[in-house]
Amino acid sequence: MIAKINKLINSQFISQSDTELIITEPESNATINRVTFRNSNFININPNIISYLNTIFTEEKLCKGYSLCDELTFQQKCDGIFLIENDNNWYICICELKSNLNQENFLKAKAQLEVSLLKILTIFDCFEPIENFRILSFIVSQSPQNNTEEKLKQLRNRNTDKKSPAQIAYQKLIVNKVCLIEENTCLLNSFNIKERYLLKNNSINFIEGNNCVVDILNYIN
Taking the model in full, what pTM does it have? Predict the structure, then answer.
């Protein structure tokens, strides 16, 4: 697989580790600045490659009819992108670190994850498609400020009929530590690329705490 990846992505953006992978937040004042993934062989893709792809993602060319897409959205990138293999299944893993996970930051992180994933999938799709990737998405943050256990109970019991899909996803992420991304709210589902990859039941996992160590196999079904 690494030989195939090297055909698609310049080797300066690729590194490997057979022990652990550390993802960091570049902002110096961030309170969530590091997460370590373990228990797999990791192919790390430098997320800076996303910046080189910004020019091909414009509202005129790719986002017609999708009101939330604009040039600023497609300039975003996440903090970590890596590949792992388990039982002959390949996973694209994307990760974003956020110091504070309120609903606004959740929506921003969700967009960063989806845009980064879209661009990586586009590289594969345009040059040499690699079939049947699974997708693992992670947001690493502290628990939302001022959310006591009692407030979490209120979130669980509140009527969901009056909530937007984004509000429901945020609530589920905080309460259940994972949220399913509805097909009609996922940025990737605006593009034909979705048919080539396993994007159904795509979810975001919430990892709580700074400098935490994560067993990646706990997130593989």
Answer: 0.81
